[in-house]
Design brief:
Chain lengths: 109, 115
């Protein structure tokens, strides 16, 4: 079957670095997305990886290993506004997106 | 209008009633999607449309129907609502017609409660 696994909740300190992991199993693969979702709001796009390696975008970076079915989102210099849920989603061979349940990130001062 | 709008923002509905959730985008995107989001579960695709005039079933289509008469609008209809359809519903769109490989942009959501 198809599956996305990511931790349910993580806690980090303001100014620190946090890594949110995601493992996926899909029939075929057409890229890995990360979205941010603040409570009560819509998901917003953060990053897309289709090739192995690290993509850096400001304070946020995303990594992909296709052979391991693994990705992570790295958030640096954490700010209170980064408190949100982070959703991992993988595209399968039918170009459908399979979504993880999301990781709720709590930032403490 | 900028982006995707959804209406209503929230709704309380009696079981057995018919309800249409509206979704409009002004980005001229080809593909549109309807998801439901329930606590502890990932977004689940209900129906999608690659382009105007075509629709397809997602992971959880039962009890829902859609139409795509034009590029901008993608309404979702619950023919006879049941309490298990209580959820937050998100409409999304993407530029290309390759469902799932393009960045998706989401509307603000409709919170639906079926009693």
């Amino acid at each position: 079957g198809q599956n996305i696994d990511q931790p349910t909740e993580m806690t980090a300190t303001e100014g620190a670095i946090v890594q949110i992991n995601c493992t996926y199993q899909t029939s075929g693969f057409n890229g890995l997305f990360w979205y941010q979702q603040h409570a009560g709001e819509a998901p917003t796009f953060l990053s897309y990886n289709v090739l192995d390696g690290l993509e850096e975008k400001g304070r946020f970076s995303s990594f992909l290993s296709r052979s391991k079915g693994y990705s992570y989102l790295l958030l640096k210099e954490l700010q209170m506004k980064d408190s949100a849920s982070y959703l991992c989603a993988a595209g399968d061979s039918n170009y459908q997106l399979i979504w993880g349940a999301g990781t709720k990130l709590i930032i403490k001062p | 209008i900028a982006g995707i709008t959804q209406a209503p923002t929230s709704q309380i509905l009696a079981a057995g009633r018919r309800m249409t959730l509206r979704c409009t985008q002004d980005m001229r995107h080809n593909a549109m999607y309807w998801y439901r989001q329930d606590l502890g579960l990932g977004l689940r695709l209900i129906h999608y449309s690659n382009t105007a005039g075509t629709t397809g079933k997602g992971e959880v289509p039962d009890g829902y129907s859609v139409s795509r008469a034009n590029t901008d609008d993608f309404p979702l209809t619950l023919a006879s609502a049941v309490p298990s359809q209580t959820s937050v519903y998100f409409c999304a769109s993407s530029e290309g017609d390759s469902v799932g490989s393009d960045t998706q942009y989401f509307g603000p959501g409709t919170r639906l409660t079926v009693l």
